[in-house]
């Protein structure tokens, strides 16, 4: 967790909160006195991701149950919940690494379904950062970042290199460009992974527990990178247990349990006044230490 | 080398119990053989007198000297640095092998006379038959491996039947089936193309399994990362998965290549003028069978040494991205 965020806590406005089981649409922060790094996302902003009544089964196990979620342009969403609650599954459905069986998911105006031919169009516009980085170990850091622009967008080698260096600069490790991933620390690798996704200039970034595999001292460098991305207005959906990060940058915090959205709201409201017993229990568990 | 422990342990060949027991074993072994009638007996004449008259004393003396020499050799080599140890051991074993061949009393002039033809014709044919088969086998293997990993029932069915059939049938039978069986359908192939075809499909079947396991050894996360960036199947396979699978594939592939180099000798049954065929036909009329067979074996060995070298080069090349 990043350091004390109590000042941010007080500064954040409350969103309206629905106690219903996830059958709720988007909630934008309504506050007028938000901190300087928070831009208000208007209700009219473009919908980047829209999920309605999404359900998913693994065999007979129901991983997601009627999930409704709308992500608007510029919004920062943090999803938390106990392990096995379907958080990762949900965001993996957004770029169709996983298939959902019921309901509808629309990403960037394209509806995801099993017979789609244009899944590439969706994936090109959705960046994803994984828990275990998943950098390509046989390529240099630079090449990891150049691959997407070159192979997917048809950029020339020099253009791709320029893009790659720009985003490596953005995550503050341009000097590591010619190293191989194994030569970097975990935190550096994860920042390269973020840069790699950014090189595709996606409309939304998905983070799947980006700090869970890191040593404690490396967590902050990755969170700082993510925070600065958020400040620049990147649309983000983060599955994370970093509650400090959630308080500092999220427009909305979503709590999931057993494949359902149990509760969601602006961070201030969510952390100080959780409505559901399950949420209270979860928060008390992870904030205890 | 294995990942070595940091604890310094005494060299095995310097441990008294080890030296003593090797000494005992060697002594016992050589006591069982009567070496008094050999060169060894002649060398020992000053000590044991007339070797043929020396009896048990002579046998013991010879075995004792050999055992001492062996143990001393072991202990002394133990002091050398590792590189020198490897070279010395190679040289000594090589000498033993040569001594073994020398005991056949081969006619060296006969070998010298026929060696050039054995190389220009035999080695050349063996090499190009192997090289072409190897190329085809790799192509077949990559396609079959992907088919075996696909969710398409037809592709999987064909590929798994292929590997099962061609790994299951003896290579010799496959060569006969292709050379003598295909003409039944009106396809008449010459000996060399038949041989190449048989080798390709057979080795391809083995390599299919190597490729499949190599591809499967790559972490799922690599597929996910690649997919999440929008890379399609072909691109992911070509640029992400196969380059990472190659280092895993190389050692078993080297193995297969070496064994295929020697399996190419089976093509000799079709009368292709490759190394084994020539070695047999040149030696037979003058009863110099052993000369030519030994020469051919050594040539096979040299060729597979080259393959080993290439393999270790490639392995070193790929260990690059694993360095810390």
UniProtKB/TrEMBL annotation, chain A:
The UniProt record lists the EC number as 3.6.3.-
- The source's superkingdom equals Bacteria
Indicate whether Iron-sulfur appears among the record's keywords.
no
What Pfam families does the entry give?
Answer: ABC_tran
Describe the location of the ABC transporter domain by residue ranges: 49-283
Query: What are the protein's UniProt keywords?
Result: ATP-binding, Hydrolase, Nucleotide-binding, Transport
Which top class of enzyme applies to this chain? hydrolase
Q: Which GO terms describe its molecular function?
A: ABC-type amino acid transporter activity; ATP binding; ATP hydrolysis activity
Query: Which family, according to UniProt?
Result: Belongs to the ABC transporter superfamily.
Name this protein carries in UniProt: Polar amino acid transport system substrate-binding protein/general L-amino acid transport system ATP-binding protein
UniProtKB/TrEMBL annotation, chain B:
Record's subcellular location: Cell inner membrane; Cell membrane
Q: According to the lineage, what is the superkingdom? A: Bacteria
Give TM segment ranges. Answer: 17-36, 56-79, 86-104, 124-147, 154-179, 185-208
Q: Which CDD domains match?
A: TM_PBP2 (cd06261)
A single Gene Ontology CC term = ATP-binding cassette (ABC) transporter complex
- List the Pfam families hit by this protein, alphabetically: BPD_transp_1
PROSITE patterns this protein is in?
A: ABC_TM1 (PS50928)
Oligomeric state and interaction partners are given as: The complex is composed of two ATP-binding proteins (GltL), two transmembrane proteins (GltJ and GltK) and a solute-binding protein (GltI).
Which protein, by its recorded name, is this? Glutamate/aspartate import permease protein GltK
Originating organism: Rhizobium giardinii
